[in-house]
Amino acid sequence: MALKQILAVMCLTVPMLAWAENSIVGQWAMPVPNNPQCSELYSFDADGQFAVSSDQERVTGRYDIQATPALPQMNMAFVSDNNMTDCFGNTVDQTGQKDAHYLKWDNENMVQFCSDVTGQNCPVKLYRQ
Fold this sequence. Notes:
This protein is mainly beta. The chain has one domain (2-128): Beta Barrel (Lipocalin), CATH 2.40.128.640. Helices cover 15% and strands 44% of the residues. An eight-stranded antiparallel β-barrel has the order 1-2-3-4-5-6-7-8.
């Protein structure tokens, strides 16, 4: 009976441990393909707050990460946006918007934001700074 309990605990914790090896906390950059002189800079704090700077745009918000059977899901809620131009030439106010991404780790210094849990559509790559 003790062996069954140990195996059950291992099955529940191993995926979480594998995910915990990689942390989004820190400074990240996303190069902009059609604008090589501009990069979006992301800062994720351990307390669940984030900030993004992209050209003149400054955005802040809150995030959380939840384990799923496949890829961890990152939920982002945008709290403020200065509504200035970003690296893509957009001036969209993201205040109040919510996004969900699945995190696909290539290694501890590179993570992709995927739109699907299978990790097949991952348009955003962030590099640890």
